[in-house]
Amino acid sequence: MTDTTHTFAAYFKRAASPVIILAVLKERPMYGYEISDAIKQRSGGKYTISVMYPILRGLVEDGCLELSKEVIVDGRARRYYSITPRGEQYLADMKVEFEELASSFRALTSE
User: Fold this and answer.
1) What are the Cα distances from residue 26, in Å, to 63, 65, 67, 79, 82?
2) Half-sphere exposure of residue 82: CA atoms within 13 angstroms, side-chain side
3) 10 pLDDT exceeds 90?
4) What phi, psi does 74 have (nearest 5°)?
5) How many whole angstroms separate alpha carbon 43 and alpha carbon 7?
6) Alpha-carbon separation of residue 78 from 9, 11, 105 (angstroms)
7) 3-state secondary structure of 44
8) Phi/psi at 2 (nearest 5 deg)?
């Protein structure tokens, strides 16, 4: 299979990216590039999100994140995102759902 947009990894990353972002932001508020860098560091470079800002906007619109402050650094705006109580609940729910799915997957694919 040469089409990398339809691989299991691509689908998984697309589904997991909002949850990963919320997990990283549980530590502290961060700006977009900082979130991306934290994800890359924690995954040993194996996990990157190429469409970070649309995901951040969606999480803000859903009430899972809020823009906590904006700082101008070297003429560029840094918008800091922080997780909300709704985001923390969504993260907790998705972790449970993932564990249930992973357990079912293991049961269905074991020999």
Assistant:
1) 15, 10, 14, 16, 8
2) 8
3) no
4) 50, 40
5) 19
6) 30, 29, 40
7) coil
8) -105, -15
Strand order in the sheet with 30-31: 30-31, 76-83, 65-73
Q: What's the pTM value of the predicted model, to 2 decimals?
A: 0.86
- Asked if 60 and 66 touch (Cβ cutoff 8 Å), the reply is yes
User: Parallel, antiparallel, or unpaired: how do β-strands 30-31 and 65-73 relate?
Assistant: unpaired
What do you get for the CA distance between the two ends of the chain, in Å? 25
- Assigned token pair, 108: 């269905």
Task: Specify the DSSP class assigned to residue 26.
Answer: T
What integer pLDDT is reported at residue 2 of this predicted model?
A: 59
pLDDT confidence of 55, banded at 50, 70, 90? very high
Q: Which two tokens stand for residue 38?
A: 């934290």
Secondary structure letter of residue 49 according to DSSP = -
Query: Which two structure tokens, joined as six digits, stand for 65?
Result: 């994140």
